[in-house]
Write a structure and sequence with these properties.
This protein is α+β, with helices and mostly antiparallel strands. The chain is about 45% helix and about 20% strand. Strands 2-3-1-5-4-9-10-11 form an eight-stranded mixed β-sheet. It has a three-stranded antiparallel β-sheet with strand order 6-7-8, covered by helices on one side. Helix 1 packs across helix 2 and helix 2 packs antiparallel against helix 3. The longest helix is centred in the N-terminal third of the chain and has 39 residues.
Length: about 350
């Protein structure tokens, strides 16, 4: 295990004490909100640091008793019995600390934009894209997050050819960022008389929701076109030119939104465009930082097949971490915590291994 950064631990404790003192002075509301946010982030870290320091002090006391030949025999036997359990606790706290002190992804606490697109498989792919959206929607609901659809193109037999939504809440991106990639489904379609298993796919992209301070979009870099909004089957939703298409000229990115309000459409399209541009910047920075990024679970390569949902066998397999769970029915209903936690744990293990190599 990599050695704990003692200097960093001391600095975090000092900063935590400083924030506590400033909050107790009754600062202005906006300052208090910022301090409270930092306080809540540091609290679990400092709590673990203090538990670790207390356990280490207790272990030092027990070892002093054991090395003192004049100490009462019963006291020494008691110390000898307590030390192994305390050593296990210290080791567990060290592991917790390693994870808590890992470099943070600046986007982890952000809300996210979820994009799901049907791939190969025609109508079955669109139905599967709909299943995936409902899975994430139910998962989000269980976390108390808010889901808002920005745009959707429905499939002919149901589901979605494409759906884009915001998932708002604290830490959304940290939980869902490893969902980006190609999701494959194997099942027997309802229209299949022979009972043959069909394979289809959908692509998922999870982007951190960007704010104005994260990415600047210059007015001269975009072209905004308005067009008539269409409903299912090409029917016109209204008679006004309300749909908006924004083209980002430097990158060629195109975003559309076709709700009833042109003002809302422009805002929603800009929201998606900003997040896509922010994602491009993050991917570029990450690629430069880590040449072996492709080998990590968080590579975010959206052409990579990451997961298979096999309905006849009731199993879900994540190919990046070779994890298979036989509870597809529960997972498709939004119970994906076990899979999400396993992906995060695998990513953290990779980060810890890298830190160990650097030291």
């Amino acid at each position: 295990m990599a050695k704990l950064p003692v200097d960093k631990m001391r600095e975090l404790e000092r900063r935590f004490g400083e924030i506590e003192a400033r909050m107790s002075e009754g600062p202005a509301a906006d300052v208090y909100v910022k301090l409270a946010s930092e306080y809540s982030e540091l609290q679990p870290v400092v709590k673990t640091i203090r538990e670790y320091e207390k356990a280490q002090a207790e272990a030092a006391d027990l070892e002093a008793i054991l090395s003192d030949k004049t100490m009462d025999r019963d006291m020494r036997e008691l110390a000898e019995a307590e030390l192994p359990e305390l050593s296990e606790r210290i080791e567990a706290l060290e592991k917790d600390m390693q994870i808590l002190l890992l470099p943070k992804d600046a986007a982890d606490e952000k809300s996210a934009i979820l994009e799901i697109r049907a791939g190969t498989g025609g109508s079955e792919a669109a139905l599967f894209a709909g299943d995936l959206f409902r899975m994430y929607e139910r998962f989000a609901s269980g976390k108390g997050w808010k889901v808002e659809v920005l745009s959707a193109s429905e499939g002919e037999a149901g589901g979605f050819k494409e759906i884009i939504a915001t998932i708002s809440g604290r830490g959304v991106f940290s939980k869902l960022k490893f969902e980006s990639g190609v999701h494959r489904v194997q099942r027997v379609p309802e229209t299949e008389a022979g009972g043959r298993i069909h394979t289809s796919a959908a692509t998922v992209a999870v982007l951190p929701e960007a704010e104005d301070i994260d990415i600047e979009i210059r007015p001269e870099d975009i072209r905004i076109d308005t067009m008539r909004a269409s409903g299912a089957g090409g029917q016109h939703v209204n008679t006004t030119d309300s749909a908006v298409r924004i083209t980002h000229l430097p990158t060629g990115l195109i975003v559309t939104s076709s709700e009833k309000s042109q003002h809302q459409n422009r805002a929603k399209a800009m929201q998606v465009l900003r997040s896509r541009l922010y994602d491009i910047e993050r991917q570029k920075a990450d690629s430069e930082r880590s040449a072996d990024r492709k080998s990590q679970v968080g590579s975010g390569d959206r052409s990579e097949r990451i997961r298979t949902y096999n309905f006849p066998q009731g199993r879900v397999t994540d190919h990046r971490i070779n994890l298979t769970l036989y509870k597809l029915d529960r997972m498709i209903e939004g119970d994906i915590d076990e899979l999400v936690d396993a992906l995060i744990a695998d990513y953290q293990a990779g980060q810890l291994a890298q830190l160990g190599e650097q030291r």
